[in-house]
Amino acid sequence: MPAAPLLPAQPAGDTSEAAAARAAMVARLEESGALGPGPVREALLALPRQILMPQAYVRRSAPDETPPRWDLLDLSRPADREELLERLHSGDSVSIQHDGEPILGRVPRPCRGGVMTAMSSTMSLTADLLQQLDLRPGHRVLDVGTGAGVTAAAACFMCGDEGVVTLDIDPHVTAAARERLSALGYRPATVTGDGTTEWAAAGPYDRIFVSFAVRHVPHILVEQLAPGGRALMTLGTSSPSWPGLAVIERRRDGRVEARLRAVEFGHRAGSGFDRLFLSAAFRTEITTADGCTQRSPLAPPQDTARGMWLALDHLYPGLVRDFGAEDLTIGAPECRSWMRVRAVGHRRWDVTTSGPWDIWAEIQNVAGRWRAAGAPDVFRLHFDADGSQRATSPNGALTWQLSSDRTGDAR
Q: Bias regions of kind Polar residues — which residues (predicted)?
């Protein structure tokens, strides 16, 4: 296989200040256990993030303030440089586009309202998934959801740019990525299109990476997977609370094997994927309102029982958890049902519920079924002949169908 092209020793626009910030970011990832030695580490140390993201948004409003307020930081402005470099290397997600705007040639300015429509994901998530991809020189790689171009740049660094295709549905995103990847000396195929439905050129691919959440595994991506190939993508529902990571592999004999692993963090939803959320008013209602309280000897499932929460999300879609609450707090925004659980003694919990949906009963129902299935955190994914998809526990005792539509779930 050909060797992957390396970056110049000092790419134009890189500085010792930025290199030191990258090194500190990589060290934090190593300390947290998100990053180990190997080519991904070398890529993250080498790739100048400020060339891929010379502008980025920073939120100036409180989390629940409406309309939200942002400033666009620009590397070329001395007053912005320190804050931008800190933002780019914080490890947090970085927003680069507001309301589908053109990215190239923007004049930095404050903005209000709207939503962020393109970003670079958190570095711990990106580093972990890149390591799981096991990219190697000569691999043909399809990167679906270009964003800031970080994954595409890492793939070019590790595999060589001739076999890399990066694709995004937004032409402004692809135009910016094409220019900025070129500034790093990389020229992958940078394409505008919907990689979940229509892109079939240049395959098959050894590795496929989807950088946004999908409801089900796009069949076209499975078809493009080469023997020995692997694809990774976040599978989710309308709730952002309990993601799953789909790992699809095509064996050398052509057979496809896939599994769904419950994970703590996943990618955000892509275009056309409605997301439920708990508004500030609804969170306050759940915290302060009176409901029906019962004393229960049954413990709520632990946060680490991720397979149970993943199953709950698919079997009873429409629930959202408030992870910032002190007690276990879950709401159903579509019907305004909610539940909070508070420990009040040894093996005693006060469960307060409100609304037409008995969320506590559903949690206990799924928890019992999950334990009977062997308490798995990894499920098999099946692609049936009629096009449907389902997840099952290893012993077959717990199963559910994956949704195939692109709208929000409603109970």
A: 389-405
Measure the N-to-C terminal CA separation of the chain; round to a whole number of Å. 52
- Judge contact between 94 and 115, C-beta under 8 A: no
For residue 22, what is the domain's CATH number? 3.40.50.150
Do residues 31 and 174 both lie within one domain?
A: yes
47 neighbors 157 (Cβ within 8 angstroms): yes
Domain that holds residue 363: 280-372
- Taking the CB of residue 371, how many other CB atoms lie within 10 A of it? 14
Tokens coding 135: 């990219």
**How far is Cα 350 from Cα 78, in angstroms, rounded to an integer?**
55
Q: Do 166 and 28 belong to one domain?
A: yes
Q: Which of 120, 146, 180 is the last residue of a domain?
A: 120
Q: How do 69-74 and 110-112 pair as beta strands? A: antiparallel
Question: Which alpha helices (DSSP H) does 4-115 contain, by range?
Answer: 16-32, 39-46, 49-52, 78-88
| Most confident listed range (24-33, 264-273, 290-299) | 24-33
Same structural domain, 290 and 192: no
Is residue 341 assigned to a domain?
yes
| Residue 137 and residue 177 share a domain | yes
Check whether residue 235 and residue 145 sit in a common domain: yes
What count of Cα atoms within 13 Å lies in the side-chain half-sphere of residue 388? Answer: 7
Whole-angstrom distance, CA of residue 253 vs CA of residue 250: 8
Residue 150 shares a structural domain with residue 168: yes
Convert the pLDDT of each residue in 190-227 to its tens digit.
Answer: 999 988 776 656 689 999 999 999 999 999 999 999 99
pTM (global) more than 0.90: yes
Which string of DSSP letters, residue by residue, matches 351-379? EEEESS--HHHHHHHHHHHHHHTT--SEE
Q: In a 3-state reduction of DSSP, which class is residue 399?
A: strand
Length of the chain: 411
Mean pLDDT of the chain: 93
Residue tagged 């070019």 (tokens): 156
- Copy the structure tokens of residue 314: 């698919």
Which residues are part of the catalytic machinery?
A: 121
Q: How many domains does the chain contain in total?
A: 3
Angular region, 51: left φ>0, alpha ψ -120 to 50, beta rest: alpha
Distance CA 121, CA 81 (A): 21
Question: Both 110 and 139 in a single domain?
Answer: no
Say whether both 341 and 203 belong to one domain. Answer: no
